[in-house]
Amino acid sequence: MSKLRLLYSMDDPHPKVGEPVVKVGSSGLDVFLTRLGNYQQGNGPNYEVTWPKCWIGIESVTNLLEDALKWELKQERGASRLGEWYDGYTSETVTPIIEELIEGNGFKIKPVDPVFLPIAYSNMKETRQKMLEHYQKSHILSEFLVG
């Protein structure tokens, strides 16, 4: 069975006024609890980590989309930060760029069904289980493989 991967967006939990920053990264559908938990641990109890926008596809294609976004927004990558943080964007404003890359490159990646969003620390275990049950159905999984 093909391994599914999420591409997620996460707004800067501690933004400076007027300076939005967004992280766009990816994680395996079956293991994203660790990633989200690490972000939560790093931000403490007074902030809940949330992924408001996510896309899903097979691992190899999701990785291609992530690389395409890095190339597209290379000038906006924060020089002082590690990872895929992009200056001047929020989850909302980076979404059209991601959607254009998906459409323009013919990537077989779909937005995560809104019933599963936002993915947050408080709902991650329940959401993961529901997503695994939903996206591993053969008729849904085949959409990522054949069209």
Q: Would you kindly provide a brief summary of this structure?
A:
The chain has 147 residues and is of the alpha+beta class. It has five helices and seven strands, in the order E-E-H-E-E-H-E-H-E-E-H-H. A five-stranded antiparallel sheet has the order 5-2-1-4-6, with helices on one face.
Q: Cα-atom Rg, whole angstroms? A: 15 Å
**Spatial strand order of the main sheet:** 5-2-1-4-6
Q: Give the helix level as a range of percent.
A: 40-55%
Mean pLDDT: 89
Overall 3D shape: globular
Number of domains: 1
Total strands = 7
- Low confidence ranges: none
Instruction: Estimate what percentage of residues fall within beta strands.
Output: 15-25%
Distance between the termini: 17 Å
What is the count of DSSP helices, taking H or I runs of 4+ residues? 5
Task: Please explain how this structure is put together.
The structure is a single chain. This protein is an alpha+beta fold and 147 residues long. It has one domain (4-146). Helix content is 42%, strand content 21%. The protein contains five helices and seven strands. It has helices at 32-43, 59-72, 91-105, 124-135, 138-146, and strands at residues 4-11, 21-28, 50-51, 53-58, 85-87, 110-111, 119-120. The strands form two sheets. A five-stranded antiparallel sheet has the order 5-2-1-4-6, with helices on one face. A two-stranded antiparallel ribbon has the order 3-7. It is globular. It starts with a strand and ends with a helix. 28% of the residues are buried.
Using brief descriptors, characterize the structure shown.
42% helix, globular, alpha+beta, 147 residues, two-stranded antiparallel sheet
